[in-house]
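thread: overnight batch results

M.L. [08:02]
morning all. the overnight job finished for the chain we discussed friday. pasting input first so we're all looking at the same thing
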Amino acid sequence: MKIKTALLITIGAIVMTACKTTKTTESVPKPVVVKDNTPNVINVTAKLDVNVKTQTDNIDVDGKLFMRYNEMIRITVVPYGIMEAARLEFTPNEVLLIDRINRQYVRAKYEDVPFLKKYNLNFQSLQQRFWDEYKKERITLDIGAAVLNIKLSKINNDATWDANITSVSSRYKAVSATELMNKFGGF
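M.L. [08:03]
and the structure it wrote out:
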């Protein structure tokens, strides 16, 4: 149950970071921005260590962040470092949310995912948010029901990761965004 709660809170927090964050010190240098506002660093990978504090729980969840400017933001959630429990992929045209535990997924346009629509989030707004946030080693997010303390480590400009959209196995069931989010407490 703690894995499911941690997964729910992590997914919600990552997507809702546009709502409120507390900024902390910067220790990774900002990329140099050229005239067209494209950073000279176009690939970023980082290890995520997320501590989720609620009124009743204190849960640690690990993961990985992969970003390729103007192409993709990929977040993998790996509780206890054992196996990938969830994958979130944001591309300019669609969102892919994969629940590896229950073998379900959603591939949809941004406006078809209720919590993204609720907060008026699209690829550009998410990219701007994540691109700004990756430069910090520690980020604290207060999302009301929980406080997440996120530590980014092993930040680098690795261009070797595969930025192709994940192919989902036929063993996975396609569900609606509402159905998948309701399993995680709804948004």
